[in-house]
Design a protein that fits this description.
The protein is globular and about 40 Å long. About 5% of the residues have low confidence. The protein has 146 residues and is mainly β. The termini are far apart. Strands 1-4-7-9-10 form a five-stranded mixed beta sheet, with no helix packed on it. It has a three-stranded parallel beta sheet with strand order 3-6-8, with no helix packed on it. A two-stranded parallel ribbon has the order 2-5. It comes from Ambrosia artemisiifolia.
């Protein structure tokens, strides 16, 4: 295997008609090596990271960290309301590329804090936008303009 955990002979195969992926009974799911995430053409998806049910005894806020995620593309998701609608904080320390295209229902990235120190430009349906604020504020402003 190479440094990414893939064999040199492995390739990425698009599956255009895949409508659902369900992972049950996993002992562990580790996404710390994830570098590129692209989700498109999913007509009914409303949220990408589903909020965990709140536990009465757990009052501290959760943080979701994708330490190697460099590129995130969400395209043609007409019912997408947000990446995560929970209050989880997101840390995306290496995110450099964010594309948002044809996601007309998108109102917020997450209801929690988002940290993207390397993100400078967002490629959107209405052009490139330089980010001088957090993603949530940017999305809210653009949604109000539309």
């Amino acid at each position: 295997t190479n440094g990414s955990g893939l064999n040199a002979s492995q390739t990425v195969v698009p599956i255009p008609n895949l409508t659902q992926v369900k992972l049950d009974w996993l002992k562990d799911l580790n996404l710390v090596q994830l570098q590129d995430l692209s989700i498109s053409e999913c007509k009914n998806i409303e949220v990408i990271v589903k909020q965990e049910e709140e536990k009465e005894c757990d009052v501290k806020m959760n943080e979701i960290m994708l330490p190697r995620l460099n590129s995130l593309r969400i395209k043609y998701l007409p019912k997408l309301k947000g990446f995560c609608l929970g209050k989880e904080a997101f840390s995306l320390p290496l995110l450099e590329s964010l594309e948002i295209e044809s996601c007309s229902a998108l109102t917020v990235f997450t209801n929690g804090h988002v940290s993207t120190p390397e993100l400078e430009v967002i490629d959107t349906s209405f052009g490139f936008c330089y980010v001088n604020t957090d993603i949530n504020s940017f999305i809210k402003t653009k949604h109000e303009e539309m």
